[in-house]
Design brief:
By secondary structure, this protein is an alpha+beta fold. The chain has 3 helices and 6 strands; from the N terminus they run H-H-E-E-H-E-E-E-E. The strands form 2 sheets. A 3-stranded antiparallel beta sheet has the order 1-4-5, with no helix packed on it. Strands 2-6-3 form a 3-stranded mixed beta sheet, with no helix packed on it. The relative contact order is 0.10. Keywords: Coiled coil.
Length: about 180
Amino acid sequence: MEELKQDLEVTKLELKKTQVLLKQAEEKNNIIQLELEDYRAELEETRKELANVTVEWKASAGELRELKAKDQTGFLLTDGDLVERQLEEIFHTAVRLDEDIKQQVARVLWVYEYDGLTDADVDFETIEVKGDSSLAKEKKRSRERPVVIAPALVKRGKSTGQDFHIENTLLKIVVLRD
């Protein structure tokens, strides 16, 4: 009888452990589902933004064709259709790359924002400055907006879905200052 009681206690403990593990697994699953929903929402938002950019780029390519036709200075642009095809190819390649990145479990972000250089604000791990980069001159021109040549690419977490608190800069943001 005593042996049965001990077996019953052991079974109850194992059941409690199993229930705790099950609850932890459910919590992890819920977190993953929330992250996936965020990724899907970001992907949809990115697709909408890129659709708008496509329209803008096509309009810009049309303006380039008009400039070529109206150019009176002797400065010749390359063929407007060629420019449009090149811009579209660059754009579509960027869209495919962004879609591939968005499908990773790790969170990968494009960082476009850059407001001016100050000693306190500059993160030299994520920013690369082209041109004159002395901080003294930059502080004087802090009202000017730099031109972002290429956004930064930042990855949070691992492809396995772990360590979302760790952030790695894959590509620095490239800005242009005179």
